[in-house]
Write a structure and sequence with these properties.
Elements (H helix, E strand, L loop, with lengths): L1 H44 L6 H4 L7 H35 L3
Length: about 100
């Protein structure tokens, strides 16, 4: 009987490790996917007057990457400054209504 319990605990540990790996990898995968998506559409987002690849006789590598990093940083700043505060205030108001 101890072998059945031992197998069950090994399977449970394996399942828990698998779920923990998924929980860690999903945000990383979404971030990488969105970064590549932003890099691919950045040349269309930038106006031709600002994008140096349109008016110079040669292409500057990395303009799309720099623009996507700036966009991601801007989104992070917006979420932490305005939207983040509003969301935290809403959660605090909801939690203050419940007696703990």
């Amino acid at each position: 009987m101890s072998k059945g319990i031992k197998k069950r605990t090994i399977l449970i540990k394996f399942r828990n490790y698998f779920i923990a790996g998924i929980v860690v990898l999903i945000p990383i995968g979404i971030t990488v996917y969105l970064t590549f998506f932003l890099i691919s559409i950045t040349s269309q987002i930038l106006p031709k007057e600002i994008n140096p690849n349109h008016y110079l006789p040669y292409n500057i590598p990395g303009v799309e990457i720099i623009t996507s990093v700036i966009l991601i940083t801007l989104i992070g700043w917006l979420s932490l400054s305005f939207l983040g505060r509003k969301l935290l205030n809403l959660i605090n108001k909801i939690l203050n209504k419940y007696p703990f």
